[in-house]
Design a protein that fits this description.
EC number: 2.3.1.30
GO molecular function: serine O-acetyltransferase activity
Distance between the termini: 47 Å
Radius of gyration: 25 Å
Shape: globular
Largest sheet: 5 strands, parallel
Keywords: Acyltransferase, Amino-acid biosynthesis, Transferase
Structural class: alpha/beta
CATH superfamily of the largest domain: serine acetyltransferase, domain 1
Protein name: Serine acetyltransferase
């Protein structure tokens, strides 16, 4: 073996000391990304019983399985919320081994948060049901709602978001962001857990959609691939803009087609309005109005040589 591993280790150890923001050595309470993924999957099995899992779920076993799964979820969620609350206290002042290590109140709060979250699961599941129906109603390419549950990245993204949003409302640090970024990585749809979304959101295709933290989206909204609901440039730094409305509002029944960019906390897209593809908006649109780009001027040029000449010399035998 050469000296390369030894030299690299020395350099890495020095970099750990130089950049402590990327080091969590000695931290007793850290949220676990792998356990958060387990949490998402536990919620998926509770939300869509029978659809996901290694074995079929018999009807006469549904009650027992549901109660067992809720018990497992309770233990997993309590563990991760407890860690997240203690982690947040230890991060105050960038210190390690701080107040979170001995925070008895954190366990009490974690229990209260876990109970409140679990009590919300039936209502969140109802909301997700409206999203499943909206996906079926809005896409003639699907044959059944089962297909939207199994196959549609928009359903996967909004399913994860609705539960992450509940944790966000309960002021749980870190866990909602981990959940949203797991969904982002799997679907290409980036929804901040702070975004408020009404019933029956239909995300078609979904790739490249961005929904910012302070977005407010009404009922029955349709979003197509590549839509950005974002913020204008936040000059002045983090503290100036934290907690302020920075992202647009979409009222009930709005449709936004592919590639549209809508920016700004004061931007309101009125009820039943339509925003066409590739539109760039930083101002409000009245209810029922349509915003679209003028058709671009296209130029179609003939090939420089005849097609048969362009293909001459190619051997197409495979």
């Amino acid at each position: 073996m050469t000296d390369a591993p030894h030299d690299a280790a020395t350099a890495l150890l020095a970099s750990y000391a130089q950049n402590p923001r990327t080091v969590a050595v000695g931290a007793r309470f850290l949220p676990s990304r792998s356990r958060v993924i387990d949490l998402i999957e536990a919620l998926r099995r509770l939300t869509f019983p029978g659809f996901f899992g290694t074995e079929p779920l018999a009807e006469d076993a549904l009650e027992a399985v549901t109660r067992r799964r809720l018990g497992e979820l309770d233990a997993l969620l309590f563990e991760q919320v407890r860690h997240a609350l203690r982690y947040a206290l230890n991060r105050v002042g960038e210190g390690r081994g701080g107040r979170g290590d001995d925070c008895d109140d954190c366990d009490v709060e974690a229990r209260a948060v876990t109970d409140a979250f679990i009590a919300r699961i039936p209502e969140v599941r109802r909301l997700i049901g409206t999203d499943v129906q909206a996906a079926f109603d809005g896409d003639p390419a699907t044959d059944h709602t089962d297909e939207t549950v199994f196959c549609y990245p928009g359903i996967d993204a909004i399913f994860t978001h609705r539960y992450a949003h509940e944790l966000c409302r309960l002021r749980v640090p870190m866990l909602p962001r981990i959940m949203s970024e797991v969904a982002h990585g799997e679907t290409g749809i980036d929804i901040h857990p702070g975004a408020t979304i009404g019933e029956g959101l239909f995300i078609d295709h979904g790739t490249g959609i961005v929904i910012g933290q302070t977005c407010e989206i009404g009922t029955g909204v349709k979003l197509y691939q590549g839509v950005t609901l974002g913020a204008l440039s936040t000059k002045g730094g983090h503290d100036r803009w934290a907690g302020k409305k920075r992202h647009p509002t979409l009222e009930d029944g709005v449709t936004v087609y592919g590639g549209a960019i809508i920016l700004g906390g004061n931007t309101v897209i009125g009820k039943d309005a339509t925003v066409g593809g590739s539109v760039f908006l930083t101002r409000s649109v009245p209810p029922g109005h349509t915003v679209s780009m003028e058709a671009p001027s296209l130029k179609v040029s003939p090939p420089r040589v005849a097609p048969e000449e362009a293909l001459r010399g190619f051997d197409w035998v495979i």
